[in-house]
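Subject: Sanity check before I submit

Could someone independently write out the structure tokens for this chain? I want to compare against mine line by line before I put it in a report. The sequence has 434 residues.
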Amino acid sequence: MSTVQSWVTGFADRTRDSAGSRLPWLSAMRQRAIERFAAEGWPTTRQEAWRHTSLAALEQQSFLDAGKPSAAQLVSELRGSDAGHWLVFIDGCHAPELSDVGTLPSGARVQSLSEALDQVPEQVEAVFGTELEGASTAALNTALAADGAFISLARGVALDKPVHLVFIAASQQAASFPRNLIVAEAAARAVVMEHYVGQGSGASLTNAVTRAKLAADAHVTHLKLQQEDPQAFHLGAVSVEQDKGSVYNSHSMSFGARLARHDISTSFAGDHCETLLNGLYYVDGRRHVDHHTLIDHAKPHGVSREFYRGILGDTARGVFGGRILVAPGADKTDAVQRSDSLLLSRLAKADARPELEIYADDVKCAHGATVGQLDEDSMFYLRSRGLDEAHARNVLTYAFAAQSVDRIEPEALRGKVIAAIRALVPGGAALGEF
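---
Independent answer below. Compare away.
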């Protein structure tokens, strides 16, 4: 039985008692979503958006419903002394015994999706999305998602500490479908970090969807750090709606998984919106990572900055497909898009496809892409000052990554990304801080 047939056949059993199963709107949407997935199956390389990413290896796997093993030590290590509001999920299921939301200001709500479906189903429905959005992988999430995070901020509410969402893939062959919802009303502010890690989970599957809705002048910084097991599969989609004057900063850091696919899109529903899409990935071995982005400048005076950097070793492959759409009437749009890839091996491969699609006058837009290897002059300079070849290569590789890391605010989150890179690269600990 294929994985498509497996998910479709087991759909009724998996959703019968899941969170929100008594809500008619959610049950109907789940049914429509699994019907769409059954009809379309997994995306294939015949589809333009997936031309460089094959899910054939995923189709050969069989996955199990998740359990809830202990992960207390890992959570303690990840948390350290960091302040913030913590929600922890084990194989996609909320683990209240490991979570610590703490004290929230009046008008703020940070809780699991399963709790929100019981307590505020109308608010969840308003931002949940539909089965028609995204690829068929997102439809499968819509059909099976029963937990995740629900973050809601009333007008003017600002969280002075980050919200940490920790997703631990803990079981062998486990599949999880987290769905995270972020609602920021007018002038609200928050920093949200999604952290995906593995705990010896092997070929697990994470199919995650995050949806955010920013009202006028809201400000949300969103960091996604993916460090799952080298045999894991990670399919992620982030969809954002921005109203007038809102600011959304995205930092997508992908360092784990055998195959990782990240779809990120934002749409301007009002003028003077600002967006930063900042990405960094580091893959080696035979691993594969794919970022596809869309910034929809539907209204005038919008500003977007998009910078993706990839570091690839061995026979790894990286893909970047970025599209900036400037709609008719979106005058005074200011958009910049860049993709830069560093190949550490002759067999590594990077594909970049930046796209500008402009239907308005009086705009300022630029895009570009580079693929190259370490600069020989810089290598010579470092070696002439006593560094051996391996150390010199690591220094230059870190310097390449630092341009993405430096854009991350606040500093506490930047430190987590630096630690992730230092743990991944041989000799990283000897290089100190950026």
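---
OP: Matches mine. For the report I'm noting this point. The first helix runs from residue 3 to 9.
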